[in-house]
Amino acid sequence: MAPQVKPRRPAAARRSRKAPSWRFTLDLTHPVEDGILDSANFETFLKERIKVNGKTGNLGSVVQVGRMKNKINVTSEKQFSKRYLKYLTKKYLKKNNLRDWLRVVASDKETYELRYFQISQDDDESEADE
Question: What DSSP character marks residue 78?
Answer without folding.
Answer: S
